[in-house]
Design a protein that fits this description.
homodimer, Aspartate Aminotransferase, domain 1, Aspartate Aminotransferase, domain 2, seven-stranded mixed beta sheet, 13 helices, pyridoxal phosphate binding (chains A, B), Kynureninase (chains A, B)
């Protein structure tokens, strides 16, 4: 691979998605230095679409301020309307299978309890070592409340889960497997179709966490036979900080499942306000309370951009950006003790790449101070997520160049070694 | 009572809260008729504070677009910062006792399960007939999942719960009582101190739903000895459609309680991302997933206005507005068959008044078409919620005048008698 900056510029010139960069605010808008920030943290919090402020203003200043309660006639459909947009444009699911609601954690809880209820007599929940904390904690909490056992499958912190190891952990006691399609730390990609099929053979259900996958790689839920999934909209879907999550339930399963938080927005004929809970037909039975209208509109804006770009094209570019990160890390950072902490095969990665170095936290601080924004993950990882929708190849080149300068100069050595509670 | 419009104007002239009206958008901004809409539905969705768009723009266009993930250093404190504002300015609670998080329904679920866990050996959950649907449904769902029994206490649909009837339903089997401080349909006010004390004597906990109370009447959680509460921020707190809810746990109880949805935002030392769930100290253990940043900022704006006005003053004005509704209904509407469906004693009401008429749904539609926005509640109720923060006495007078004209002319008779799913 040609590692010159000119080669990165040539990749940008040939990028069919290059035009999407201008549709995000904040890229190169720092007056003191228009090249900064170099944002490699789109897998933590995606950039703001240019259209988002106007969409929010319309909801707030027209629909809320003037329409007042009468605007519920349009708001009430937002959770399924944006759900359908995600289903068709991002997730490879069918209309009526996706709902925007609550947080990823609450949705995980709802679907995990519903799935466990749908497998009576089975007393084991499976999760994966080093999966995202909230996934493991939710599994532990549900298991404790129900007197079930957690079977934590080992996974390589850099290479991800070995499907054979998971298969060996599945038996007639397993009710549900919770697994991230893209591992949050390493970016390792799971095989959605194969894992779902293996679990189904054993009689269990898989609940996928798509937080680091949705908008980065095709998840093809229908084609892959997935039953259940949840995911985050503030990463590659650019829905904004704390934006509501989505949940997916395969159409054929919906009537069999009941989620545990019986709320009025999941009720059939909601405004009859009847005496007994009777879950709505379809995906709306997985709704709970009054939906977050403002935030859902912001999700819609972000999801539309991803759908327009197309997840296949985004995955191709994401892989190419990752390949550039890996090549430059090998060439420039490895001599300073930086090791690749993600699968080397790009077909086995999502859209982020993780590097390991004992001074990872100090390096992160030094990079942020120089206008390069990566993500630190404890204990010794620097995670680089160049979101393909708005990140240029030269951004990656410049960020890695800065990284090498920091390492070469030892500029990071003056920074605190212990992370404060909040960064 | 002097029922002339001039008398209403005199009440406005003497209103110490009159200045707050200008701090809400939408009042009289309909170019075709500056007197419309006459909004009597602030107890369903509060008006938009004038400051809200700028506060949202700051979060979106500065903190998100430019600060990106670095803005989490301020965002991460929002749930407790706004919680403290609500505690001190609205709820009569202490700092560290209130958290903004999730929806009212999800918060009800979390605290109900936590409370039931804290009363092992007790197998009954108490709710009140005709309480808001989501409250009754959550109780039913939790009871079913745990093999507990629901004891539904009868309550008069117009007069609310008789404390003696509740007391008779409490015994050593009761773990938790769920009860709205202000009944959603009738506006009947419960005695928070007396009910809490009665339940405590029987060894049970009360989980208050403050949705129709917060910002309308003083709830004085500390003074009244309340243990647990949840509530809505999009009604009298003017947080916007689907704004996140709040939850309250008395400080002395926090360490004894564990909520069932184990998420990473409730974890001690969250970013250590440790292997096992270990709930954070204090109110943050009741957090679950990534908090809704945009919506929480909107809640802050609304809550500040309520705190500035003062709940005592708001309650006084709310009661006076209600008295005008009742007096005009008696004088003008009763002859047309409209009956008061709220307690007649203003000390026993929150800030809304409900009227009953067989054609309630048709009347609601006719009023909306004439720029008067009340709320319909099945089967035959028109609910009038003149929020004291921005509603004038002449607004009430004009709305009731319109109501009487509709009844006198029979203008409502042409409207559909059956409500479509969404209004």
């Amino acid at each position: 691979m040609d590692l010159t900056r000119a080669a990165a510029e040539a990749l940008d010139a040939a990028d069919p998605l290059a035009g999407f960069r201008a549709r995000f605010a904040g890229a190169g808008d720092d007056a003191s230095d228009p090249t900064r920030p170099l944002y490699l943290d789109g897998n933590s919090l995606g950039r703001m679409p240019v259209e988002t402020p106007a969409a929010l203003a319309r909801v707030v200043e027209e629909e809320w301020a003037r329409g007042l309660v009468r605007s519920w006639s349009s708001w009430i459909g937002a959770a399924t309307r944006v759900g359908d947009l995600l289903a068709e444009g991002v997730l490879g699911a069918r209309p009526g299978e996706v709902l925007v609601a609550d947080s990823t954690t609450v949705d995980l809880y709802k679907l995990l309890v519903a799935a466990a209820d749908a497998r009576p007599g089975r007393d084991v929940l499976v999760c994966v070592a080093d999966d995202f904390p909230t996934d493991r904690y939710v599994v532990a909490g549900v298991a404790q409340a129900r007197g079930m056992t957690v079977r934590e499958v080992p996974a390589d912190i850099d290479q991800g889960l070995d499907p054979a190891v998971l298969a060996a952990a599945l038996d007639e006691r397993v009710a549900v497997v919770v697994l991230s399609a893209v591992a949050y730390r390493s970016g390792a990609l799971a095989d959605v179709a194969a894992v779902t099929a293996t679990a189904r053979e054993a009689g269990g259900l898989v609940l996928w966490d798509l937080s680091h996958a949705a908008g980065a790689v095709p998840v093809d839920l229908t084609a892959n036979g997935a039953d259940l999934a949840v995911g985050c909209t503030y990463k590659y879907l650019n829905g904004g900080p704390g934006a509501p999550a989505f949940l997916y339930v395969r159409r054929e399963l919906q009537e069999q499942l009941r989620q545990p938080i019986w709320g009025w927005f999941g009720q059939r004929d909601q405004f009859a306000m009847g005496p007994a809970y009777d879950p709505a037909p379809g995906i709306e039975r997985f709704a709970v309370g009054t939906p977050p209208v403002l935030a859902t509109v912001a999700v819609e804006v972000g999801a539309r951009l991803v759908a327009e770009a197309g997840v296949e094209r985004l995955a191709v570019k994401g892989r190419a950006l990752g390949e550039l990160v890996v090549a430059l890390a090998d060439a420039w950072l490895a001599p300073h003790g930086v090791a690749l902490a993600s699968p080397r095969d790009p077909a086995r990665r999502g859209s982020h790449v993780t590097l390991a170095h004992p001074d990872a936290w100090q390096l992160t601080q030094a990079l942020v101070d120089r206008g390069v924004v990566p993500d630190f993950r404890t204990p010794d990882r620097v995670r680089l997520g160049p979101a393909p929708l708005y990140t240029r190849f030269v951004d990656v080149w410049d960020a890695m160049d800065c990284f090498r300068e920091v390492l070469a100069s030892g500029a990071h050595e003056g920074y605190p070694t212990v992370r404060a509670r909040v960064t």
